[in-house]
Amino acid sequence: TTWFVEKKTSGGGMFIDTLIHSIDLYRFLVGEAQSVKASYHVVHPKLHVEDTGIILIQSKSGTIGTLEGSWQTPVAENVIDIMGTKGSVSINYNTGNLKYKFQADNEWKTLQQPGEAKDRFYLGIKSFLQSITTGKEPLVTGSDGLRAMEILEKAYSSCKVRQ
Hints:
The protein is of the alpha+beta class. It has helices spanning 7-10, 14-30, 122-134, 142-158, and strands at residues 33-41, 52-59, 64-70, 79-83, 87-92, 98-102, 109-111. A 4-stranded antiparallel β-sheet has the order 4-5-6-7, with no helix packed on it.
């Protein structure tokens, strides 16, 4: 019932609230996006913005990513899974842990974050504050934010039904 779910004010729903951050991470980890497609659904009958959806994104090098999100799932995981030709890695934002497995491994190995880094926002905030105090350019710039919004607009435009 707030501005948060009013498209005219917020610009969108779950995509702009949640998956915009996944777009940033995709670009950081994989590179620039070349193609973007998306689909969403409005599950909650009183919302006027998307609350569940997926973005399919492909980099210039051909790497494909799926960015999924929902405001409607009762239990959610905040993870990044990366599968490569020689292994896989999974980063869990809820626990701060990273697990990985190489192709030849039988079991996953886990790395736990140090205590202060377990808060998923801690390192990002710390980096931002350091850029202010030292005058160094932040890891994520205004240009990165603009590019993420351009990709998001392509995602919205690719949806057949736009409320």
